[in-house]
Amino acid sequence: MKTVGFACVVSLTAGVGALAQSKPLRIEITEGIIEPMPFAVPLFVAENAAANEYAAKLTQVVAADLVGSGLFREIPAAAHISKISNFDAPVQFSDWKAINSQALITGAVSLTSDNRMVVKFRLFDVFAQAPLGNGLQFVASSDSWRRMSHKVADAVYSRLTGESGYFDSRVAFIAEEGPKNNRKKRLALMDYDGANVRYLSNADDIVLAPRFSPNAREIIYTSYETGVPKVFLMNVDTLSRRVLDSDPGMTFAPRFSPDGRKVVMSLTERGNTDIYSFDIASGRKQRLTNSPAIETAPSFSPDGRQIVFESDRGGGQQVYVMNAAGGEAKRISFGDGSYGTPVWSPRGDMIAFTKIHKGRFHIGVMRVDGSQEKLLAGSFLDEGPTWSPNGRVIMFFRETAGAAGAPSLYSVDVTGRNLRQIKTPTFASDPAWSTLLE
Amino acid sequence: MRFTKFTAALLCATALAACDTVPKASQNPDDFRVGAGDASDPASVAYFQQTVGDRVLFVVDQASLTNSAIATLNAQANWLLEYTDKTVTIEGHADEQGTREYNLALGARRASAVRDHLVSRGVADNRVKTVTFGKERPIEICSDETCWSKNRRAVTVVAGGLTS
Lengths: 438, 164
Known about the structure:
The structure holds two protein chains of two kinds.
Chain A: E1 4-11, E2 37-40, E3 45-46, H1 52-68, E4 72-74, H2 93-98, E5 103-111, E6 116-125, E7 130-131, E8 135-141, H3 145-161, E9 170-177, E10 184-191, E11 198-199, E12 207-212, E13 218-223, E14 230-235, E15 241-243, E16 250-256, E17 262-269, E18 272-279, E19 285-287, E20 295-300, E21 306-311, E22 318-323, E23 329-331, E24 338-344, E25 350-357, E26 360-367, E27 374-379, E28 382-387, E29 393-399, E30 407-413, E31 420-422, E32 427-433
Parallel strand pairs in A: 2-4, 2-5, 3-5
Antiparallel strand pairs in A: 1-8, 5-6, 6-7, 6-8, 9-10, 9-32, 10-11, 12-13, 13-14, 14-15, 16-17, 17-18, 18-19, 20-21, 21-22, 22-23, 24-25, 25-26, 26-27, 28-29, 29-30, 30-31
Helix pairs in contact in A: 1-3
Chain B: E1 2-8, H1 29-33, H2 45-53, E2 55-57, H3 67-82, E3 88-93, H4 100-120, E4 128-134, H5 145-151, E5 153-158
Parallel strand pairs in B: 3-4
Antiparallel strand pairs in B: 2-5, 3-5
Helix pairs in contact in B: 3-4
C-alpha cells in the first residue's frame, strides 16, 4: 500500500485588482438550467521540463470533468486569442471576453526533484475582470495527477455552483465478461469517469453489488465464495476480507450506516428475507423487520435516523420508510408498477429507485414522502441507482435485451438531463459511488 | 499565505495481488461426470435428472408450486426416500424481469417452497439445503417468455450431480 499526502496551499492571488463584485458569477443548478456556462481552460503552464508531459493531460481532465457535468461548455483552444505562458502574469480579460468565455481557469504544473507534482490554478470571472476565490495549489505524487485535475475541477464547480463537487471520487462496480449463461463477475474500482480501473477479485465466484464505507476505504458486497450468498467486508487497499455475519443463512443487499459502524442487510432464513442491522465492531445483529414478505435493499437516511427499503408485504414490490431501529413502516411509493432498490440521497431530500412498469425498467427519484416522482431514464433494463457525493448525479446500469444482452454504466443528472455512458473495459453493473475523497 | 493540510490514503495502483480463495467444489465440468452414473441405473444421478426430473418451474413473481411441480417433487421425494444416502441442494432461480436483490429473495422463496414440500413428504430436513441464485444463472438467454419460463426454476441438485 502506498500513502500519498495531498497538501493544499491556499495562496492570495497576486497581480490582479480585487474588484468588489455586486453579482458574482454563479450557475444555479435547478430544473431551469438549459444553457451551459462557457469557460476556457488554456493549456496549463509547465513550469519545468519534467512537467511538460503532464500539462496537457491535466488541462484535458479538468475540461472533461466540467463539460461532463453538463453545466459548462468549453471554448476550444483554437478559438483562444491569448495564451497563458506565465501563471502569475496579469490576465488579458478583453481577449477572453471577446470569445465570450464567462469563466477562465488558468493553471500551472511543476515537478520537484523527488517526483512530487505541484499543481496551481486560478479561476476568474472574465466579465467582472476579477478572480473568483483564491488561487489553490495541490501537491502530491505525480502518479495521482488525475486526482489533482479532479480537485481543480471540484473547486471550480464548487465556486461556480455554490455546491460541493463530485469529480474526485471513485466508483465500485461489478466487471462482467463472458456469455449471458456463463457470466464471470469481478469486483472492480475506478475513478468516477471510468479511468484507472482496478480489479479487487478474480472471477471464481459470483460477486454482487459492492457499496462503499463512508470513508471509501472499505467496501461491502455479496459473494458466493462459501457457496451461498454472503455479505463480505473488504479493505480496498489491502484486499483483506471477511464474512460479516458467519451465522447460517444467506445475506445480501448490504449498506453502511452514515457513521460507518453498522451495516444493514437482508438475511434469508427458511425462504423468508428480512432486514437486519449488524454492528461491525461487536458482531451483534438486530432484526428490523419481521414479516413473511420479502424485505430487502435497505438504505439509511444521511442523518442515520431512518431506513428506506423495499417490501412486497402489500402484494407487490414497493418502497417503505421505517425508523432505523425498525418497527412500523410507512409505504411511500404509490405509482403504477413495482418499485425497488431505494437509495437515500446524500442531501437527504430525495430517494432514487428502480421502477418496473409494463415490462420496462426506469430509474427515478421522488421526495422522501413519495411525492414528486420523476423518471430520469428508462429501457429494457435500467437498474441500481447510486448517488454522486453531492446528490446531483445518479449512476446506474443499463442491460440490453436478448441473447447478446449485456450491462454497462450510465450517469444522468438528477433533473433527467445529460444521460451519458461511462466507458469501461468490460461489461459493467452494480455501480456504487464513493464520497468525495479526502 | 495560509496552509491547509489534508492527507489521503491513495489506492494502490499496482496490479492486483492474488486473492486467496476458500476451497470449494471444482468447477471443471469433467469432474461432475464422475458419480453421475448410467441413466439406466435408478440409483444414479443421471436417472434422477432425466427420469425423476430435477427441476420445477414457476409462474412470474411467484413461489407457489404448480400441480405439475408437485407431481415432480413427489417423485423426487420418493427417490430420496429410496436412496437415503443422497443429499440435495435446491437452487432457486428467477428470470431477468426483476431487480437483482429482489430476485435473490424470490429465488430463496422458490428453493424453500421445494424444500418444504420434500420435507412434508418425509425427506429428512438435514438432507436438503437451499441456495438462491436470483437472476445470476440463466440457462436460457433470450429476452422473452420462452426463455424466462425456463429460467424461473428450482433445481434439485443431488450431491455429485451436474449443477445448472
